[in-house]
Write a structure and sequence with these properties.
Blueprint lengths: L25 E10 L7 E5 L10 H11 L10 E7 L3 E2 L2 E2 L2 E7 L6 E6 L6 E8 L9 H13 L4 H8 L8 H12 L12
Helix pairs in contact: 2-4
């Protein structure tokens, strides 16, 4: 008999904490992003899965902006994998923090150098591409993937050939497969040719 106790590990707080992820990483869809006006935590990200809002630290906000752009409104509908990093320090003590390991809407894995602490050295952050579950690719996320594909060289004709018509004709159950093919690049780039 399996008895998952993950939901009992959540910290008593109004935001997602590193200890909430003690049971392992979670992959969630972004439902909304707002500025708070609070200097220490100026951005709040609402996510799916019954999790409390995530307030990313400056380093993770920089990572998201480097990967997706600084227009946080465009992040809505995209997916992120969050995990607990136990070595994150606060006031010189390792208390753990929330970090990002995977993002949807990136073509390939990324390595980004970001400064983690004031005056500290830059650390490398590796992020893997993340394909949303096929049954979870929302209308907004699918439209965003199509827009990204056009920016990355897909033509309208190529998109229609891939989808067998207009984007609105693609059923939700087929969207994940279409998004995966979009990430491979336009037909002229897919497969790569000779090495």
């Amino acid at each position: 008999m399996t008895l998952d106790i993950t939901d009992t590990l959540a910290a008593k707080s109004e935001q997602l904490n590193a200890d909430d992820l003690a049971g392992g990483p979670v992959t969630v869809r972004i439902e909304g992003v707002e500025k708070t006006g609070v200097p220490e935590q100026p951005v709040v990200v609402r996510v799916t899965g019954g999790y409390k809002p995530w307030r990313p630290c400056k380093t993770m906000r920089r990572l998201l902006a480097a990967a997706w752009g600084a227009d946080a409104g465009a992040w809505v509908g995209r997916w992120v994998t969050l995990y607990r990093e136990p070595t994150v320090k606060w006031a010189g003590e390792p208390i753990g923090g929330i970090r990002v390991s995977g993002l949807s809407h990136i073509e390939r894995g990324m390595t980004i150098k970001l400064q983690e602490t004031k005056g500290g050295k830059k650390l490398e952050w590796r992020v893997s591409p993340l394909v949303p579950p096929a049954d979870e690719v929302t209308d907004a996320a699918f439209r965003a993937a199509l827009r990204d594909a056009m920016k990355n060289g897909w033509t309208s004709e190529q998109l229609e050939a891939l989808m067998g018509g207009k984007g609105s004709d693609v059923p939700p159950s087929k969207r994940g497969a279409v998004v995966e093919q979009l990430r491979a690049g336009p037909p002229s780039q897919a497969g790569g040719g000779e090495s």
